[in-house]
Structure formats: C-alpha cells, structure tokens
Amino acid sequence: MKSVHSFHLRAWRTLWLIGALLIYLALTTYQLGLPGLHYDEAREAGLNAMELLTGAPVTAFRDITFRFRDLQLPVMVQDYIGALNVYLAVPLLWASGIGVPNLRMVAILTGLATLLLLERAIAQWLALVNLETPATKQLPLTLPGLLALTLLVASPSFVFWSRQGIFVTNLTQPLVFWCIGQGLCWLRTGKQRALLFSALAGGAALYAKLLAIWVIGPFVLLAGGWWGWQRWRNQAVPRLSWGLCLGVALAFVLPLLPVIFFNWQSGGTWRAVAGNLGTSYYGVENGALVANLGVRARQLVQTLQGSHLWYLGALYRNELAPWMALGAVALGLWHHPRWLLGPLVLLLATLSCSLFTLSDLFITHYALVQPLVIALIALALSTLVNPLRQLPRIMQRYRSLVLILPIIVWVAWDLTATLRYHAALTHSGGLGDHSDVTYHLAYALRYQGLGAPLALDWGFDAPVRYLSEGTVTPIEIFGYVSPTAPDAEFAQRLALFLGNADNVYLLHTPATTIFQGRREAFFAAVTAAGLRAQIESTFAQRDGTPTVELWRVLPP
C-alpha cells in the first residue's frame, strides 16, 4: 500500500509540474510581439545574431571579437554583460526566421529552465537539511518546489520579465540556480562532478551578467562556511583535495575567459567597475545605503505585487502578496527555522549587495532576486503543513483549506493581474521605449530608402537595424558620455552632417527624450548655421501620443 501511495503522489506531483509549465507557456507566448522591441533586447542578442546569420559585418561591443575562420564572434555586448544570449539566439533564429517573437522565445525557454532548476535547487536544499534522502537516490518532486513554480508562473513580474528576458538578462536565473543546486548536491552527496558543475555554472552566470555576483558571492561564502562548520564539529563532510580545488578553479574560470580576453583588449569591465564605485553612471550614490535601501525595499514590494509594469499600458497589483509573504516567512521561522534560515540569509545577503550599482537602481535587477524570494515563501508555506495537523479533531477536515485557500487567493489575484496586463497591452502596444512605434519607424525608413538616419537620442539604432534586417543602419551621434547633457564634441559630430539636405535626423519628442540636451543643441546648431529644421514625419503610440520625430535640415 505504501508503494501504491508513493506512486500516486509522484503522479499527482508530475501532473502539477506539467500543468504549471503549460500555464507559464500560455501566459508568456500570447501576443509575443508586444510590447515593442526594446533597445536592450536587440542590442544584447538580436542584432549580433542577425548579423552572424546574414553574413553582415558584426558590430561588436568595443570592436572586440574572436576570429574563427571568416567569422567575427562577439565577446561581450556590454562591459558587464556577455554574449551568451547572442549564441542562444542564433540557432533559434536560423530555424524560425528573424523576428521579435522568434527572439523572445530564447528568453521564454530560459524562464522555463529557471522554473525546473529552481525546483531542483529546493529539492537539494530540503534533502540536505532533512538528512533523509540517500546520496544515490533520485530526489522526488517536492511540495515547496511545486509551490514556488505555481507562485511564479502566474506572477506578472515573472511572466512579463520572461517574455522580454533579454531586456532583464534573465539568463542569469537558470545559471544561478544550477550553481546553487549543484553546490548543495555536493554538500549532500560529496559527488565531485556536482561541485565542478556548480563552479562552471557560477562562472557562466557571471559571464552572462556581472550582477550575478549578488547571489553567487554570498552562496559561495555560505556553502564554504557550512562545510567548515560541519568539519569543525567532526561531522561527515565532502572531501576536498588539491586536485579537486584546481579542477573547481578551472571550471569557474573557463566561462570567464571571454571576459578576461575582453579586458585584456579593452579594459572595459575594469574601467566600468572602477569608474562607478562611488557614483554610478546614472548618478546613484553607492555610499547612500539608507536611501538605496528604501528604494530597493519599495522595488521588492512592487516585484511581489507586479505593480511596476507601467509600459504595458496600465498598472495592476496583487495587494495581498507582500503581506502574505511576510506572514508566511514569520510563521515558517517560528515553526521550522531549519528549513528557512539558509535561504533567508542568502536572500538578505543578496539584497544587501543590490544596494550597490554600476548603472542605476533599476527594478529589472530584481528579475534575478524574485525566484529566490518566492523559493523562501514556498518553503515557509510548506512548513505550516505539520502544525496544521495539530488542530483540534473537529477542525482536521478543514486543515487543508487553511493552507490551500491563501495560496489559491494569491495565485488567482496574480493571474487576474497578468491577464489584465495582457488586455492593456493589446490596447496600448506598449509605452515609452517599449512602444511598438519602433516597428512602424523601421518599416518607414526601410521602404523609403532612408538607410542611414542620424540618431540624436538613445533607443533607435539596435531595434531599427534588427527589424529592418540590417537594411537601415542609424548613426548614433548623441554621445554616451553623459545621459544628462551632450559632450563637448557633440556639436563637431553634428556639423559634419548638417550641410547635406539628404540626411534625416531621428529625435524623440521632448516628453520622451532619454539622453537630455541633444534636441536643444540640434536646433541651436541648425539656427547658428543659417539653416532651418523641417519635420518630415511623426510616429505615435496607439493612444495617439507622439514619441518619435523624423527631421530634415534644409537651406533657409
């Protein structure tokens, strides 16, 4: 009878897993072309992948490439973001064609891998702390792991961040949880292969984006601390030989070889880190810990609520989620702290690391943090199963409802918000730099033969080039030195083009301008040269709000 019960339990949990993954796929693949293609999606994956597939010259970041026969292979897409998404996109775009939904399938599959690896990491943690599962036995699906999946697949934050996963570099998610799961497996079983895989995954996560250090760094310290503490207590611990340590170091460094090569050629990562330690590129004071903590605390709440996706066309929120999460964790720590202390310390260390930034305190950084938060909440909810069994006999029949009802309310509220976001997105097409205006702009430039427009603001180049399959190549002259004002050489760059009446200029409207001061400097330079600027086209969002302008400079 026990084996029959175990079989039915495994069957039900497998069906639960399949159902959760199908819900995730349904929510993420619906109207996949919306919102519009974001600059980061195109720049950090689509553009280089398209160039490799079409045989066009590769516009590599800082012109650093690996040369393989006739190919120029990009090494990095930003100073602190590797080119992994480019290489994941190439086979998918080759098989399905160059398009926006095609590109986003890379991120959706990445999210799918995240869900599976998160569940496995939770299973490894429970097996480690419970000390019940033999090292040779396959770990079954766990209740906390399935709860975590269920809470994530309906979450507006996880769904829409996964749809545009390249925009938030969601590739760090599966790599981080692969690293954690394999590291816990080594601590539990002593399998050397698991430790090597953990090191490999950790290095790959850092190559995907340096921000992964928020989780990888604290996890290495915590895992090492646990190993040392157990050894000090004369408990059985995995054996560490010099040969294994060398293998781990090599496995960790191997994915980081492109970063080392990139910095040997350009020093870009080192300069980005050193130059933004005090004050970041967007003006964040990294020493202002209290102020930064306030920002990050609000963002954590917004991530749980799903109340930050304004660019989809509306704002919806799960008001109960933060309170239910706080209550679940508090009760879990009261009833079963052993399950929660490790993940909680890892989460708090990760949140502490997030107070520092090289760019800005973007809420999208918490795409990496959210699965860790949900894992903690799922573990906390699962600890309440045994205490509920101690209810008076008259209430025993209702004990399942006490646990299941709040979860149903949470998931239903999240699912409602996600579906309402989809409805808003259908109407809006996306807002701001996520608008589908870029689609119409790329089409107009391509079929009007305007192959080299001059971009006077950020956000035009990579999406237009990808959407036009390389037939339109905007020339960025606005300058990246500062987002608040044009650099000293801006006027000189602009003057090279003003004398040619065939040139066209791309600007955002004043309300949607991102890199400030260039628009005013453009019109001032035109007037000073005795010329006149004439607007040729305006492109508007679906709600009628103009966002993009196409200008020419003509004789007076």
What would you note in describing this structure?
This protein is an alpha/beta fold and 556 residues long. It folds into 2 domains: 427 residues, no CATH class; 120 residues. Helices cover 58% and strands 7% of the residues. A 5-stranded mixed beta sheet has the order 6-5-7-9-8. Strands 1-2 form a two-stranded antiparallel sheet. Helix 3 crosses helix 4, helix 4 packs parallel to helix 7 and helix 7 runs parallel beside helix 9. The mean pLDDT is 92.
Essential attributes:
556 residues; alpha/beta; five-stranded mixed sheet; two-stranded antiparallel ribbon
From the alpha carbons, calculate the radius of gyration and give it in angstroms. Answer: 26 Å
Largest sheet: 5 strands, mixed
Structural class: alpha/beta
Which strand order does the major sheet show? 6-5-7-9-8
Kindly state the mean pLDDT as a whole number? 92
How many individual β-strands?
9
- Helix residue percentage: 55-70%
In angstroms, what separates the terminal alpha carbons?
Answer: 92 Å
Gross morphology is globular
Number of domains: 2
Strand portion = 5-15%
Number of helices: 22
Low-confidence stretches: none
